[in-house]
Amino acid sequence: MTYAPAVSPVKNSSTNKTMHIARTRDDLQSVIQGWKADGLRVGFVPTMGALHDGHISLMTLAAQHADKVIASIFVNPTQFAPHEDFAQYPRTEADDLQKLEAAGVALVYLPTEDVIYEGGREPRVSPGKAAEGLESDFRPHFFGGVVNVVERLFSQVTPDIAMFGEKDFQQLQVIAEMVQAYDMPIEIIGGPIARDSEGLALSSRNAYLSAEELQIARQMNKILRDAARGEITPPQAASKLLAAGFDKIDYVEKRWNRILAAAWLGKTRLIDNMPTQ
Ligand code: PAF
Questions:
Q1: Of all protein residues, whose CA lies closest to atom 8 belonging to ligand 1?
Q2: Of 9, 69, 79, 257, which has fewest CB within 10 angstroms of its CB?
Q3: pLDDT confidence tier of residue 2, bands split at 50, 70 and 90
Q4: pLDDT by residue (tens digit) across 154-163?
Q5: Would you say the CB of residue 111 lies under 6 angstroms from ligand 1?
Q6: Pocket test for ligand 1, best of 171, 189, 206 (most atoms within 8 A of CB)
Q7: Given a cut of 50, is residue 81 above it in pLDDT?
Q8: Lowest-confidence region among 8-12, 117-121, 130-134
Q9: 146 C-beta closer than 6 A to ligand 1
Q10: Is residue 168 lining ligand 1, measured as CB closer than 6 Å?
Q11: Quick one: fold of 204-275?
Q12: C-alpha span between 81 and 218 (Å, rounded)
């Protein structure tokens, strides 16, 4: 399948909708300005690609809140530490575009690093209190990278609403806090976690797991559910994760009425969370 640049969109025969591809800010703006002039509400789902059903559920949710849905695919180098998996992070653009077209997305933004960080990588915003602890204790660079790429994406895409998955629950809080702190006129909406038939939270990083690791990974949601029900404490949940075969636990903690966890299986780091009951 071929995709046309933003100025000459292609029509999807099954959904009868056109999907624009924009690689530059000019391409992006030429389409969005037309929509805004028509009074249309723009929903935005930023992603790093390697799309799974969790991402697609965010596109569907965005379509319920907006007239036009924009998705971006950009593997953001500034949210990876030098020892992390930036180089290995799965890049599946052709497959991603097919999924987005089938989901009825109106425009896909595919910027290069130069387009996003035109003017340099200097931070323009800082993460607030929601970034303290949890992920930041183990990935201190992470939220600085996330807020700075999301702020740049927001300023280029200028959406009315933006969707983020609840799997990265702390990230969702950090972004909601940034939007308030910097008076950005964007409504942030969280999308429920998509899970496989055994409850494993869908993640692009699940692609790294061997068949044996996948079976172990599928225990995580069950153990967190027990902790969320108050049947075991967070430290007991951490011990159970180790007993199930996880190699290292970064944290299991209660915050925002959720039990949140991050744990390692071999070289793969998985996160998940469950609302307390
Ligand atoms: O959640 C992600 O995929 C990324 O952190 C995001 C929000 C697209 C920023 O790079």
A1: 47
A2: 257
A3: very low
A4: 999 999 999 9
A5: no
A6: 171
A7: yes
A8: 8-12
A9: yes
A10: yes
A11: Pantoate--beta-alanine Ligase; Chain: A,domain 2 (3.30.1300)
A12: 27
